[in-house]
Design brief:
The structure is a homodimer of 206-residue chains. In chain A, strand 8, helix 8 and strand 9 form a beta-alpha-beta unit. The longest helix of chain A is centred in the N-terminal third of the chain and has 13 residues. The radius of gyration of chain A is 20 Å and the shape is globular. The termini of chain A are far apart. By secondary structure, chain A is of the alpha/beta class. The relative contact order of chain A is 0.09. Helix content of chain A is 40%, strand content 19%. A 7-stranded mixed sheet of chain A has the order 6-7-5-4-8-9-10. Chain A has a 3-stranded antiparallel sheet with strand order 1-3-2. In chain A, helix 2 packs antiparallel against helix 5 and helix 3 crosses helix 4. The first copy, chain A, folds into 2 domains: 75 residues, Arc Repressor Mutant, subunit A; 113 residues, NAD(P)-binding Rossmann-like Domain (Rossmann fold, 3-Layer(aba) Sandwich), CATH 3.40.50. At the A-B interface, helix 2, helix 6 and helix 9 of A face helix 2, helix 6 and helix 9 of B. The structure holds a DNA duplex (24 and 24 nucleotides).
DNA sequence: TAGATTGTTAATCGATTAACAATC
DNA sequence: TAGATTGTTAATCGATTAACAATC
């Protein structure tokens, strides 16, 4: 089935399935069922079976799913069976946290380049990376054919940097700035703003 | 209308509306319409009007919405008209980024306490905070009546720390660890895992 | 075989949109 | 008044769930 026909809300759950199944594999489990996976994720078993059925038949009646096999299939579906190079723009505190974040490894991503526009930061080391001048980013990114960027710059700079990234060939942006950014058709953007989550929860607090 | 009757998916959009309206206010705008706001957020005007109508009548036919007034109303609805104290557990790189994050101010939150379990970190300064021993957290949190926590600890520690926080009276947790945590009824949890966003986007990359 | 669980269908449930009377 | 936009209704659209035949 062609990707464009699968509802985006289903695609968005696959990474969650992949994460939990990888955890099960680490625990040494070999087989699971839609019921068990659903319980661990707080999702109905019917939904998990329905979601997976969009992409093929991965289980066995009476038995369930082979975890290693399903992990591999989900990696292929999500296109993370290989490793994507990712650039980071913004070498502030958040940028530091992203650089030192251990969670990318084995999940399909590798930090390739780190940029900032602050002359006092350019040339400095963060972890094993040298902070590059953002003004050279378009050429670098083009040359290395990188498609994914993480944006950890101040809100005021977010749109300008975005425009440059798109020009350089970036097609997916994870934006940590608490603002909406405009991109042309064909460029994906997702946002992380912790305050949105906090405000969502305070609604329910007494 | 009683809060529990409003669909959660609508509640989840209110912080987004609030963020964009605050930005408009900063730009000096006084009035907006559901159409204009929708355009800036990539949401239909009908949805915005329907969402807001769950909580009252905030606009004027023919005119639109007074931005300052609507911002105030949304703050009240989301219970962020006052400032919540928040505790942070985990003083690693991510913890540092959270402490130095400027985005909490004026959005309803203030960092109150920072914890870690690493003796080499306890007592050190991060920004203007002294890292506290997590073993004293239950008493501290109870004494100060804090309800909200951010969790920036390794995956392996997430559940243990969560149990302690719940015992201390925490009722809302923003979890940065890439794992699901179990909490009793009445405790809200939201998650931030950048890799889930990246994997969602790679699905659509050629 | 008996028990368990899948993949799928049909029914239910809920969310979004279109349209418009009300009215500023 | 004329034009614009709200709040709301009804229609549409889409997502979730329940149930079960197929089958391991």
């Amino acid at each position: 089935m062609s990707p464009s026909t699968v509802p985006d809300i289903i695609v968005g759950r696959l990474p969650l399935y992949l994460r939990e199944l990888s955890k099960m594999a680490e625990e040494g489990k070999e087989i699971t069922s839609s019921q068990e996976l659903g319980k661990r994720l707080g999702i109905s078993s019917a939904q998990i079976r329905k979601d997976l059925s969009q992409f093929g038949e991965f289980g066995k009646q009476g038995t369930g799913y082979n975890i290693t096999f399903l992990v591999m299939q989900l990696r292929i579906i999500l296109k993370v069976e290989d490793v994507w190079d990712v650039v980071l723009v913004g070498a502030g505190d958040l940028g530091h946290a992203v650089v030192n974040y251990g969670g990318f490894t084995d999940r399909g991503f590798r930090l390739g380049l780190v940029y900032d526009d602050d002359p006092s930061k350019i040339g400095q080391m963060i972890g094993s990376y040298i902070v590059q001048d953002v003004h050279s980013s378009v050429d670098d990114i083009r040359a290395r054919n990188i498609r994914i960027a993480m944006l950890a710059v101040p809100t005021a700079d977010a749109q300008t940097v975005t425009d440059r990234l798109v020009e350089a060939g970036i097609r997916a942006i994870l934006c940590y700035a608490p603002t909406s950014i405009s991109v042309p058709e064909g460029v994906k953007v997702e946002y992380i703003d912790p305050v949105l989550h906090l405000q969502h929860m305070t609604y329910y607090l007494p």
